[in-house]
Design goal:
Elements (H helix, E strand, L loop, with lengths): L16 H8 L4 H14 L1 H18 L4 H16 L1 H33 L2 H6 L2 H43 L4 H45 L1 H6 L3 H53 L7 H23 L1 H18 L11 E2 L7 E8 L9 E8 L4 E5 L6 H9 L6 E6 L2 E2 L3 E2 H4 L3 E4 L10 H5 L8 H10 L3 H6 L17 H14 L4 E5 L7 H15 L3 E5 L3 H4 L4 E6 L2 E6 L1 H7 L2 H6 L12
Parallel strand pairs: 1-7, 4-10, 4-11, 8-9, 9-10
Antiparallel strand pairs: 2-3, 2-5, 5-6, 11-12
Helix pairs in contact: 1-12, 2-5, 3-4, 3-7, 3-11, 5-7, 7-11, 7-12, 8-10, 8-11, 10-11, 16-18, 18-19
């Protein structure tokens, strides 16, 4: 957004949101200024029309030269005609600036979300972050647009009208400075009561929507137990509440509309009568045209004042959204890779030297005194009960977290000194729940590899035992998988995830419960694919199925963040102890959760 200083370099924390908003628009500040000037000119007929009307009436009543009539009419006609091109220019300048700034702000938010630590994302709801990127930026855009369209229109009418009154009939300026704000305040008080009823009605409608959703979800249960009457009784009660709230809102709308109309018209009649009497008696040099002009300005300026007051909630919501976006842009938990060594090659040796790690919100250490050397190409299986520290070790290997104490070396270099973004180009992760996006099979497999040709994609699918089912899909590689792969089975999704890992040809592989959610047949196909995937690669496996861990070069048994035992499957069974206890009499280890 800025050439010298990007939006992520700005200091938002503790700054007033108006100043933040001005910063966000600084690249378009001249376009915004131009839009304001254009708007003032294009909107001038609204506050010039009473003045022109007064000039025309005075020309007729006082038999002034007709040239004044033609001049007044011509001037207003010219301003009206140029309104169309000026309005288009205004929209291009202002709305273009708003859209560009909104897009740049969303891009900055997405950039920061990619930079923030995994710990931040674990603590912050994905829905909250999505709201900041989508709804908060939309609210900011709406605030600027409404403030410019409605607010600027009301402000120019108010200022222009008061200037004309001060020049043409200065005796009435104090009256307008008192009457207009009071009238606008009274209208706003009526609107505030209306807003409360609107809020109540909206909440009732939202409750109705929730109840309808609940009813549709429970239809099978309702019908199976013969509870249709109970379901309808609950729904009808909700419908009656919506009806009562709607009727109250309609009545309040009617009261407001009538009261505002009566009040403003009575005020107009009183003001018209008083100004007419002043003109009739020849006081202050008031003409018939001035009477009409003042009467017209009274209603126009009152509406403008109430409109400006009504913008307060819109502006408040917009500024709060500016603060909300600023919280993300200024969040301090950014993964620090600046100035660190770029990883050009990975052999796959990992050395844990007395590594310990504690989460900020945890009572104790997740991993304590972890000592382990992993040779290139070796497969290490991590097993243990839930909370043993297995997932923490995986996060350390990926670089999502850094050791609280001790060192973790990659090929002899402390990972604290490495640019982890460059290291992760040599790493692939196959999680328990395969993550697919709404696109084609080809796009999901070749994600992040735009240069991968069709043969490369097919080879990865073949090695992942996925090519056979992909070729049976309606459009083959170009079949849409649906949102989160909804059109595929769990085993099919997992094999696509393995193909995605294979096509990257990683040197380091992370398998996090990669087969736990599969049936027996799918597990067998996935296991075959995994054996191809781990060949020649340094692999860390977290699993609870015996078939997944028994072929590992070494099994590391963990408990309370510490290493309890290390060895092959057969060695650990002969030795007895923690692994034998986990193994028990069945072919599965206990199910494990994130540690």
């Amino acid at each position: 957004m800025a050439s010298a200083e990007g939006p992520l370099d700005h200091h938002y924390r503790g700054e007033h949101p108006v100043r933040t908003l001005a910063y966000l628009f600084r690249e378009d500040r001249w376009r915004v200024a131009g839009a304001l000037c254009v708007f003032t000119v294009k909107h001038s007929p609204v506050w010039l029309l009473p003045l022109v009307t007064a000039a025309i009436i005075d020309t007729v009543v006082e038999h002034r030269p007709l040239s004044q009539l033609w001049l007044a009419a011509g001037a207003i006609m010219f301003i009206l005609v140029v309104n169309y091109p000026l309005h288009l220019l205004y929209v291009r300048l202002l709305y273009g600036s708003v859209r560009r700034t909104g897009t740049a702000l969303r891009s900055a938010l997405c950039t920061r979300l990619q930079q923030l630590s995994i710990g931040y994302h674990n603590r912050t709801s994905a829905g909250v972050l999505q709201t900041k990127v989508v709804r908060d930026v939309e609210t900011i855009e709406q605030m600027v647009q409404q403030s410019s369209d409605t607010g600027l229109g009301a402000a120019t009418v108010l200022i222009g009208g008061l200037v004309i009154i001060a020049v043409r009939t200065p005796e009435f300026l104090p009256v307008f400075l008192v009457v207009v704000p009071l009238a606008g305040l009274l209208v706003m008080r009526l609107r505030s009561r209306l807003r409360r009823h609107n809020e109540e009605f909206r909440q009732e409608v939202e409750h109705l929507s929730s109840r309808v959703s609940e009813m549709t979800r429970l239809i099978s249960v309702t019908r199976a137990h013969g509870l249709e009457a109970d379901a309808l009784r609950r729904m009808n009660e909700t419908l009656r509440r919506v009806l009562r709230s709607g009727l109250r809102l309609d009545l309040m709308n009617g009261r407001f509309a009538s009261a505002a109309w009566v009040f403003l018209n009575i005020l107009g009649v009183v003001f018209l009568t008083v100004s007419a009497l002043i003109a009739y008696h020849g006081l202050w040099g008031l003409t018939a045209g001035d009477v009409v002009m003042l009467s017209g300005f009274l209603t126009t300026l009152t509406n403008s004042a109430s409109t400006l007051m009504g913008l307060a909630p819109v502006i408040a919501r917009g500024l709060e959204s500016v603060r909300s976006a600023g919280e993300v842009l200024q969040a301090p938990e950014v993964e620090d890779n600046a100035g660190k060594t770029t990883v050009e090659e990975v052999r796959g040796q990992f050395t844990f030297e007395r590594v310990s790690f504690a989460y900020d919100d945890a009572g104790g250490q997740a991993v304590t005194g972890f000592d382990l050397t992993v040779q290139p190409g070796e497969t290490i299986a991590l097993v243990g009960a839930s909370g043993a520290g297995k997932s923490t070790v995986l996060n350390l290997v990926i670089g999502f977290i850094r050791p609280t104490s001790g060192r973790l070396l990659l090929d002899g270099t402390d990972m604290n000194d490495l640019d982890l973004r460059s290291y992760r180009r040599f790493l692939s992760v196959v999680p328990q729940e395969s993550i697919l996006f709404e696109g084609t099979v080809r796009e999901n497999v070749a994600y992040g590899m735009p240069d991968a040709d069709e043969e490369t994609v097919r080879a990865a699918l073949r090695d992942a035992n996925a090519l056979e089912f992909v070729e049976r899909l309606p459009d083959g590689l170009d079949t849409l998988v649906g949102d989160q792969g909804a059109r595929l089975s769990g085993g099919q999704r997992q094999r696509l995830a393995i193909a995605r890992a294979l096509i990257r040809n990683p040197r380091v592989l992370i398998l996090d419960e990669a087969t736990s959610a599969l049936d027996t047949r799918s597990e067998r196909l996935v296991q075959q694919a995994l054996r191809r995937l781990v060949a020649g690669r340094t692999t860390f496996v977290v699993a609870h199925r015996l078939s997944t861990v028994r072929d590992a070069d070494r099994i590391v048994v963990m408990g309370d963040g510490r290493i309890l035992q290390t060895g092959t499957h057969d060695e650990l069974l002969r030795r007895g102890g923690a692994y034998a206890a986990l193994h028990g009499d069945c072919a599965r280890l206990p199910e494990t959760g994130a540690a």
